[in-house]
Amino acid sequence: MLSTEIFQRWKPRTDPEIINATPFVIRGHHLANLIPIAVNWSSPSEAAQKLVSNIGRYRCFYAVDVLGNTEEERDAFQENLTRYFERFRSLPPDFPVRITAGQEDGICAGCAVGNHCAKKENSDEDAEYVSEFIQRAAELSTEGRPTGQLERDNGEPMAQVGLMHAGSEDEKSAEDQFSVITTAQVVREVLRNW
Q1: Rg of the Cα trace of the chain?
Q2: Which of 50, 49, 59 is nearest to 79 (CA)?
Q3: By residue range, what is the domain housing residue 97?
Q4: 92: in domain
Q5: Do the beta carbons of residue 22 and residue 178 sit within 8 Å?
Q6: Which of 8, 48, 157, 163 could cross-link 81 (Cys pair, CB 3.0–4.6 Å)?
Q7: Domain count for the chain
Q8: In the 8-state DSSP scheme, what is residue 151?
Q9: What are the backbone angles phi and psi of residue 74, rounded to the nearest 5°?
């Protein structure tokens, strides 16, 4: 259980675009793909090109599921990935971001086929990443860096709700159990220190 003292309350701007926004969704296991953007190691297009190149090296179900069988499908995935990375980079610091297990995000949406996105193993991996994100945010906060408020979907602070683990007797899905809402600034700060 996280201590409530380690987080500062997140206060959204009054900008209607942010108030009425659906949070930017990041699937847990996709957090690592955003590190080059958060750290400014590469542009969104360079990061997308590198990721597509890495996936394309494999001749397996996953590569075909993500990139498809044609150059057009591969290009479409890369263009979608570039837009997703650009959007992440351009989010205002206090824009809401949901890090989740199991819920598809903009990367999943661009897959040529996307069957792997629905596999339970991916949701379990997502849950591990969400837990790791929470731990790293807590560590940064205890180092004196403000990390904002981590909240459940219902707006309650994580410290009051706690974490429910996949496979518990609770009837909620892994996605419901490991969904954290924070801000773009918090995500970027955590990823810069990952």
Answers
A1: 17
A2: 49
A3: 29-192
A4: yes
A5: no
A6: 48
A7: 1
A8: B
A9: -60, -45
